[in-house]
Design a protein that fits this description.
With about 675 residues, the protein is of the alpha+beta class. It has 22 helices and 23 strands. The protein is flat, with a radius of gyration of 39 Å.
């Protein structure tokens, strides 16, 4: 049900809406003009030039679209991987990897690669682009929410705080996003709302009956002072969220500024269409991806990669049109002959039809037969036009920074090194666009990192993705057991983390490159096939290549595997269970057991049982250590075994004597402190 809101809130919303629109008016004009210039052929001819040419040929050879696509697709081939790193003593490396998997899952579920590419294309062609983060329920039958990365179809629908300094808008204090609904969709979602009135203003686009209804999502940062408590484990909790026990056990407290983002949905009548909610992040979930930007007199100016190439493109189109016009109007080379030779009517249609033969009437001059008709010479096309076309083409490449090598075209470079150098030169010309894209994606990671502890605040199973795209399931906010038997507890609210990005080819591409490199190396160094056949096979992109590599690995001698053999041994032990006790240790264990029996018979004090049990545990641990060493291929000398066995017997005897002493018998049965392995 639609709800009336405070007029002060609506007035503030309208004021900020007009402020952002006015501050970005010039950049918006540049954005619209540059975008149309790239994607609309008619936009590459100015109205004066169109009127001057009239019905004469007017062609458009759009070179700028190819250049823009080259920059955009190059970024697609170098995706950005968001990675998490702990930055304090409470952060955990294993938890950071889980967070990385959560981010990859969100990106995969949101088709984030397409979202990033769309915003980047807007930045390259128009000067800036946007994408956003929202929340959705995991399924229609679930109460769990998860983040979603969404595309902003039209950057004009975003109104962001113009006083932000960070290029990505991370420090913005408010933001507005328009979403267009059809009349039927709007009335179904909010049947009691009124979509017609545009807040009492003359801005009729706000609720256009034919084009649809616009709904504004209004994000506002609210800051308020609140007491912050630090608990014994180093974590912090706000006073409004802390229990009485937490407040009483807090090590210290202070007044801090708490930041939260409120999320409103506003309709055309100045109504809140849904109850305002707190967005689960400290940041405005609208991410700006800038192109090129600079500041003059305190104002922000933006443009895309093709902005300064428009004049060269216009000249290219004009010169090509002139050339085609002259080519079309150039007369055919006429035949020259004597009067009376062209009596056949076929000669009149020679320039339009291809006759297999032409008859010539014989003509004699001074008693001699006249020569056959011949074509005359025709003046060729103006060479200045061809030169101008070539020059404007080079100017387009110069102003965009794209070279022939970047376009995959043949140039004067002959060696691979020279071609690579020219490609790098072109990449450097547009490296600022790639850098700005990376900043925007990093800010996306920061928002997701801030959202996870708020959304995953109760025990639930979360889906993660590995770097290779393999899915997995982990428990969040609950102690669980991994596949290797180890226990873990992933608390996303514990510790502080930071976001870094890794730019490079996709995992599949890196795998293919590694396979090619290994194959080439194998040709020059055949010995590698005997030393590392498993690695070569594992790098291949075959079905079941990993399984084949695992089987090959079993055939490699342990001395070649080195440390990897230890890992394989541990994995085999986890699969096969504990190995049998080696023969050289069985006799030693039997001797120790006999001594234990003797100690049991001699002891009448209850505490002696505890010492003997501890002694068994120590010997069991010692046996396991020996087994692990033997499995690793290390030989244990008999002298070392004897010395360690004597030390163990001495420790056990001392413990037993202590337990049998009168002081030990009158201490109320106090538990004996366990000895460390070092003791």
């Amino acid at each position: 049900m639609a709800r009336k809101v405070d007029p002060e809130l609506i007035a503030g919303f309208q004021r900020r809406f007009r402020l952002a629109e006015s501050a970005n008016a010039e950049n918006q004009k540049t954005f619209d003009h540059d975008r149309r210039f790239v994607y609309h052929d008619d936009a590459q001819w100015e109205s004066d030039a169109v009127g001057a040419r009239g019905d004469r040929p007017r062609v458009t050879i759009n070179r700028l679209q190819v250049f823009a696509r080259n920059i955009t697709n190059e970024a697609r081939e170098s995706p950005v991987a968001i990675k998490t790193h702990p930055v304090d003593e409470y952060g955990d490396v294993h938890l950071a990897k889980v967070v990385d998997g959560l981010i990859r899952h969100v990106e995969h579920d949101s088709n984030a690669s397409d979202v990033y590419a769309a915003a980047f294309e807007d930045a390259v062609t128009g000067g800036y682009g946007y994408f956003r983060i929202t929340t959705e329920y995991e399924r229609e039958d679930s109460f769990y929410q998860c983040p979603k990365i969404k595309r902003v179809l039209d950057p004009k629908t975003v109104k962001l705080d113009p006083f932000h300094e960070d290029p990505t808008g991370s420090d913005a204090m408010w933001g507005i996003v328009h979403t267009r609904y059809s009349r039927d969709e709007f009335e179904k979602a909010w049947p009691d709302a009124e979509p017609i009135n545009a807040f009492g203003s003359d801005n009729a686009f706000w609720a256009d009956r034919e084009a649809g209804v616009l709904v504004a999502e209004y994000f506002v940062v609210e800051e308020a002072e609140e007491k912050l408590h630090q608990l014994k484990d180093g974590s912090t909790v706000w006073d409004s969220e802390a229990t009485k026990k937490q407040k009483a056990s807090a090590t210290r407290s202070r007044v801090s500024c708490r930041r939260r983002v409120m999320w409103y949905k506003i309709g055309g009548q100045g109504e809140i269409l849904e109850d305002p909610v707190e967005f689960p992040s400290r940041y405005i979930p609208i991410i700006r991806m800038p192109g090129r930007e600079w500041f003059e007199d305190g104002k922000r100016f933006t443009c895309g990669a093709i902005h300064y190439s428009k004049d060269a493109q216009r000249i290219y189109n004009y010169a090509r049109s002139q050339q085609l016009e002259r080519l079309a109007l150039a007369p055919k080379a006429p035949f020259i002959g004597y009067a009376g030779q062209f009596t056949d009517k076929k000669w009149q249609t020679l320039n339009t039809k291809n006759w297999p033969f032409l008859e010539v009437a014989p003509v004699t001059i001074a008693g001699q037969m006249a020569p056959l008709p011949q074509r005359s010479q025709v003046v060729g096309l103006d060479p200045a036009l061809s030169e101008e076309i070539q020059l404007s083409n080079e100017e387009i490449k110069a102003t965009t920074g794209i070279t022939d090598a970047n376009l995959g075209q043949k140039s004067n470079e002959t060696s691979g090194r020279a071609i690579m150098a020219r490609q790098q030169q072109g990449n450097r010309a547009n490296a600022d666009f790639i850098s700005n894209r990376n900043m925007a994606i990093r800010q996306c990671g920061m928002i997701l990192l801030d959202m996870f502890p708020r959304l995953y605040d109760e025990p639930r199973v979360a889906r993660i993705l590995g770097p290779d795209g393999q899915p997995d399931l982990v428990w969040i906010q609950r102690e669980a057991q991994g596949r290797d038997g180890s226990k873990y507890f992933y608390d996303l609210s514990a510790g502080k983390y930071d976001i870094v990005i890794d730019v490079g080819p996709a995992y599949s591409t890196r795998r293919q490159e590694a396979a090619v490199a290994m194959t080439e190396t194998l040709r020059s160094v055949p010995l590698i096939g005997q030393v590392a056949p498993d690695l070569i096979v594992q790098a291949q992109d075959w079905p079941d290549a990993d399984k084949l590599a695992a089987r090959l690995r079993k055939t490699i001698p342990p001395q070649i595997l080195g440390k990897d053999a230890d890992q394989d041994g541990v994995a085999q032990k986890q699969e096969q269970g504990p190995p049998p006790i080696p023969p050289e240790l069985q006799q030693h264990v039997q001797e120790l057991e006999q001594e234990n029996q003797q100690l049991k018979q001699d002891s009448a004090v209850e505490s002696n049982k505890l010492a003997l049990e501890k002694y068994k545990v120590d010997q069991d641990n010692e046996t396991k250590i020996r087994v692990a060493l033997i499995q690793a291929g290390q030989r244990i000398e008999e002298k070392t075994i004897a010395e360690q066995g004597a030390n163990a017997r001495h420790a056990a005897q001392s413990a037993a004597e202590s337990a049998l002493s009168p002081q030990a018998g009158t201490d109320g049965g106090q538990e004996i402190a366990p000895q460390s392995e070092d003791e």
